[in-house]
Amino acid sequence: MRVYVTRAIPQRLCENIAEVGEVQIWDEDVPVPREILLEKAAEATGLLCMLTDEIDSELLDAAPRLRVVSQMAVGVDNIDVPSCHSRGIRVGHTPDVLTESVADHAVALMLAAARRFREGMAEVVEGRWGSWDPWHQLGVDVHGTTLGIVGMGRVGNAVATRAAAFNMDVLYASPRQSGPSSARHVALSELLTASDHVMVAAPLTPETRGLFGVREFRAMKPTATFVNVARGPIVNQAALAEALDAGEIFGAALDVTDPEPLPPEHPLVGLRNCLIVPHIGSATVRTREAMAALATENLIAGLRGGRMPSEIEPTTA
């Protein structure tokens, strides 16, 4: 068996994979080029891939030996899962192990947007920090306010738990009523008008793609913040830039954009009330190592024909 790993992972994990087959690794600090991915997939029995790799019908058609695709991420919107299953290819991903770190990050972004961290840091860096002024750079509160979470999965639930420490009321909009008892399930329209802080933690699906546009941002309070820790294409970024620039919402903090990386000339980048970080929600040493370990376990178990710890089953794809 041959395994292709599309980014470097810890050596001990490579050694584990080597017990079931020959391992090749793309060890550059950029995503593997498409032509190389297609070439390597053509000979692979297993792929350990990243969210930057497009696992589509073209690749699957070129990979007749492929039996397992194991992704080092929770979301699999870059993988044509139904096509994998129709070909008998098993698909693994890495939920749970990153939930708490992403939730920490989501709350940090909410606080940063509410208290205008980007603007304050810019004043210091650019030498514009003047004398103390009681009315200078006023933000909005987080404690005692209402948080609206769009998508109440693992991360949404973890954020709701943290919100309790800030004495926040939590509303959520989700296809399923899966939130904690302390949170209230509402329609998206109610969530937008009632929330002081709106956070997106939903998967990217045909239903959520472009979910936030002009109408949604105009429905929000002018004092509200917007946080996205899900996927960039859920948001119409032109509409978000217009809302921020016009003062229709107070501020935003984004961990994800569309595309990634976002070009420096994009309107959102120049807005001082928009903080953007480079998709680092799960970027802690412990979490990324756990994700790599779980992806490796999924791959090995799948290649051996055993139970994968975190497999996307055909019935739930």
CATH topology of the largest domain: Rossmann fold
Number of domains: 2
> What is the N-to-C order of secondary-structure elements (H for helix, E for strand)?
EHEHEHEHEHHEHEEHEHEHEEH
Counting DSSP H or I runs of 4 or more residues, the number of helices is: 11
Walk me through the structure:
The protein folds into two domains: 2-97 and 285-316, 3-Layer(aba) Sandwich (Rossmann fold), CATH 3.40.50.720; 99-276, 3-Layer(aba) Sandwich (Rossmann fold), CATH 3.40.50.720. Helices cover 33% and strands 15% of the residues. With 317 residues, it is of the alpha/beta class. The protein has a seven-stranded parallel sheet with strand order 8-7-6-9-10-11-12, with helices on both faces. Strands 2-1-3-4-5 form a five-stranded parallel sheet. The radius of gyration is 21 Å and the shape is elongated. It contains eleven helices and twelve strands.
